[in-house]
Automatic annotation (TrEMBL):
SMART domains: Glyco_18. The lineage of its organism: Eukaryota, Fungi, Dikarya, Ascomycota, Saccharomycotina. Keywords: Carbohydrate metabolism, Chitin degradation, Glycosidase, Hydrolase, Polysaccharide degradation. Belongs to the glycosyl hydrolase 18 family. It comes from the Eukaryota. InterPro entries: Chitinase_II/V-like_cat (IPR011583), Chitinase_insertion_sf (IPR029070), GH (IPR017853), Glyco_hydro18_cat (IPR001223), Glyco_hydro_18_chit_AS (IPR001579), Glycosyl_Hydrlase_18 (IPR050314). Its EC number is 3.2.1.14. This is chitinase. The keyword Transcription regulation does not apply. SUPFAM superfamilies: (Trans)glycosidases (SSF51445), Chitinase insertion domain (SSF54556).
């Protein structure tokens, strides 16, 4: 922040002093938010504020080469686990399992009554309460099924009902919707809104049936696009009444689809100018909170446990960030099975390279001069910067895609642990809904002994 000239005030009234000080403070905030990226160390904080900390866990995680299981997650640092994905069936307008073997059949231990990743997550919540299991619906690979299912006659009602029934059947605490993305045709965004309304309606009905009231107990969130072109097509203010959290997907800003290199999970755009159109987390967050007026305590900052890279980069001065950004490239490389140009965080930095943190962009990167490979990603430093950003802007917290990329066995390098150290207080709820006698009674009335959880109810 530029040093400000001292203001000398002489022989002015108390009212004038107040006005001048107010103007100075407003100017200070304006310059702070537009020209300097690091919140001052002495900025006022609500020491009693609590935050959410979520991870997405995918149904492909237990397979090679990842071999990452629910038990590997340190749930003491987590408030939400988003199980990904249940899929929308275009023909029936209902949900279906994404991978039956991984979801509910794979053995997860000698003493586990329930099988599969879903069974393991339920058991984990019973053993170590304090976090919620959330059912994530859709995802990028399932994007085409949404409009096909929802545009059918009664499609919205069928899918909404199926979402809530499936959530309850498999013991989830809520639903996270991930349609990437409704077409900007004046219809699909409104259909998405109606889906949210219907899901919340069915959640309310379930709560009334169990507890006799519709106090919100079941969670509904949206995996939200984090760039202007998509956000402006959503009826966000109308959606907000049904939503508990907006999980901002503030990553994938740059990749193989880009015309030039860039950091895919950058907090800022690297310049001293602010724009809601910028490809960065800050632009998307401010659009939601400042432009649309969404309560910041419902906005969750997304972080990536992977990097995106570019090969054969035509760099300028590789010792400077500016010499590596917005450069032509040929190919994207990658060490992560399944998608070109990706490295899991636990595969970074590339062997033999130096990890660099750029505070102006809010991103880490490494560059291999031999292959001219650039990879941008989050590291310990960028995570601390983002935790500070969450606190300074009074956001709800943070989440990561996806759990298998974290360095869970190294507390100093685990980004989840680092984030938690800096935000200090988690909004953990020790109440397990599925231990409630009223809920169990209602569950057995609906699913009887064939219900997925029935064997665990005593």
């Amino acid at each position: 922040m530029k040093r400000r000239q001292k203001i000398t005030i002489a022989a002015v009234s108390l009212v004038s002093v107040t006005v001048i000080l107010t103007m100075c403070f407003t100017q200070l905030l304006h310059k702070k938010t537009e020209h300097h990226h690091q919140p001052p160390a002495q900025c006022p904080q609500n020491v009693n504020q609590k935050y959410v900390s979520g991870v997405y866990y995918s149904d492909w995680s237990p397979y090679e080469p990842r071999m990452h299981f629910p038990k590997n997650i340190d749930t003491s640092k987590i408030t939400h686990i988003y199980y990904s994905f249940f899929l929308v069936d275009a023909d029936s307008s209902a949900l279906k399992l994404g991978d039956s073997w991984s979801d509910i059949e794979m053995p997860m231990g000698k003493n586990t009554v329930l099988k599969g990743c879903i069974g393991a997550l339920n058991s984990l919540r019973d053993e170590k309460p304090g976090f919620k299991n959330i059912m994530a619906v859709g995802g990028w690979s399932n994007k085409d099924a949404f409009p096909l299912a929802l545009r059918k006659k009664h499609g919205v009602e069928k899918l909404a009902q199926s979402c809530v029934e499936t959530m309850f059947q498999y013991g989830f605490d809520g639903i996270d919707l991930d349609w990437e993305y409704p077409k900007d045709d004046g219809k699909e965004p409104r259909i998405y809104l109606e889906l949210m309304r219907k899901i919340r309606q069915h959640m309310n009905e379930l709560e009334i049936a169990i507890w006799g009231d519709k106090k919100r107990r079941f969670h509904l969130s949206v995996a939200t696009p984090a760039f202007y072109d998509k956000l402006e097509t959503f009826p966000i203010k109308e959606m907000d009444q049904y939503i508990d959290y907006w999980n901002m997907m503030t990553y994938d800003y740059y990749g193989e689809w880009s015309s030039g290199t860039g950091f895919h999970s950058n907090l800022y755009d690297g310049t001293n100018k602010f724009s809601e159109h910028s490809l960065c987390a800050d632009g998307a967050i401010r659009y939601m909170t400042n432009k649309i007026g969404i309560n910041s305590r419902k906005v969750v900052l997304g972080m990536a446990l992977y990097g995106r890279g570019f090969t054969n980069v035509k760099e300028g001065d590789p010792k400077k960030t500016s010499g590596l950004i917005n450069r032509k490239f040929k190919g994207v490389g990658g060490e992560s099975e399944g998608e070109p140009g990706m490295w899991l965080y636990n595969q970074l930095p590339i062997r033999g390279t130096q990890e660099v943190f750029d505070e102006q962009y809010g991103s880490a990167y490494c560059f291999d001069p031999k292959t001219k490979t650039l990879v941008g990603y989050d590291n310990v430093d960028s995570t601390r910067q983002k935790a500070q950003y969450v606190r300074f802007h009074n956001l709800a917290g943070g989440f990561w895609w996806e759990s298998c990329g974290n360095k869970w066995d190294n507390v100093q390098q685990s980004l989840v642990h680092v984030f938690n150290e800096d935000i200090e207080r988690l909004d953990r709820n020790e109440t397990n809904l599925y231990q409630d006698p009223k809920l169990r009674e209602h569950y057995l009335q609906i699913f009887a002994k064939s219900g997925f959880l029935a064997a665990t109810f005593k």
